Amino acid sequence: MNADLAKNYSAPADCLADRVILVTGAGDGIGRAAALCLAEHGATVVLAGRTVPKLEQVYDRIEECGWPQAAIYPVDLLGANEQDYQSLAESVSSLFGRLDGLLHNAGELGERTPLANYSLASWQKVLQVNVTAQFLLTRALIPQLEKSVDASIVFTSSGVGRRGRAFWGAYAVSKFATEGLAQTLADELEETTRIRVNCINPGPTRTRMRATAYPAENPGTLKTPEQIMAAYLYLLGPASRDVTGQSLDAQ
Ligand code: NDP
């Protein structure tokens, strides 16, 4: 496919009408912008995340704007176990009867230090939140995604998930794993289901995580989350129906 298609996508106003899409890390940064943008384009958004007041703010904003009523699902990707993900899937099933989109957005940066000094605790935390939680959440939700006529799973990668870089430690390793998880799943689901699976690399974006990673950078030079939404709309909407196993750039 044309690599620029996604980032230059011009989404019809109602392109996500009648779709139910779950977004992790929906209370802040890129996930917050995505939740609002998806709702604006007609989706019913399940706001998943660990800080409920932030999710409530997004919920209220969606309501104020008159977009489809959202749902809040509190989940801490660090501590959740298999049963917690099963309960989440049962809630989605009983509320909506299916899931049309799953945006794995939440992420943990971890330490920025040489691997020679990298702590086991930080390593395990990053891999739990960025990889294992995504596997467990996806596994629990596949039966709901199978009920959709046009389901899309989007994983969030990074430049350091394609080429490793000094001091990015477990974060870089976790993003390589994310790419591998997406490719493996895409290959498994392609012949037997209508679920497509792709990765998105947001690129440098003005968020709390970026400011933590690059404290000396002027945030004013970066795109805001709201400015990179075209590729998210493309991957979660009908325009990408035949696209699977790809890793795309949002900018
Ligand atoms: P932010 O730090 O702004 O937001 C991260 C989100 O993930 C927050 O909503 C946070 O919740 C949530 N989160 C973190 N840990 C957990 C957890 N244990 N359980 C549940 N939710 C959790 O980061 P960004 O918006 O920048 O990042 C979004 C994604 O984009 C990440 O996957 C990141 O790796 C990726 N990315 C970002 C880039 C950038 O330049 N910003 C570049 C490349 C990739 P809470 O608000 O409660 O802390």
Features:
251 residues; binds NADPH dihydro-nicotinamide-adenine-dinucleotide phosphate
Trace the largest sheet across and list its strands: 3-2-1-4-5-6-7
Low-confidence stretches: none
Strand content bin = 5-15%
Number of strands: 7
Number of discrete helical segments: 8
CATH architecture: 3-Layer(aba) Sandwich
CATH class category name: Alpha Beta
Largest sheet: 7 strands, parallel
Bound small molecules, by name, code or SMILES, are:
NADPH dihydro-nicotinamide-adenine-dinucleotide phosphate
Domains, number:
1
CATH-assigned fold name = Rossmann fold
CATH superfamily: NAD(P)-binding Rossmann-like Domain
The portion of residues assigned to helices is 40-55%
> What best-fitting shape do the alpha-carbon axes yield?
globular
The class by helix and strand makeup works out as alpha/beta
- The rounded Rg comes to 17 Å
Brief characterization of the structure:
42% of the residues lie in helices and 14% in strands. The protein is of the alpha/beta class and 251 residues long.
Describe the structure.
- The structure is a single chain.
- The chain has a single domain (20-236), classed as NAD(P)-binding Rossmann-like Domain (Rossmann fold, 3-Layer(aba) Sandwich).
- 42% of the residues lie in helices and 14% in strands.
- It contains 8 helices and 7 strands, in the order αβαβαβαβαβαβααβ.
- It has helices at residues 3-7, 29-40, 52-64, 82-96, 120-145, 169-190, 208-213, 230-236; strands at residues 20-24, 44-49, 71-74, 101-104, 151-156, 195-201, 247-249.
- The mean pLDDT is 97.
- NADPH dihydro-nicotinamide-adenine-dinucleotide phosphate (NDP) is lined by residues 25, 27-31, 49-51, 54, 76-78, 105-108, 129, 156, 158, 202, 204-205, 207-210.
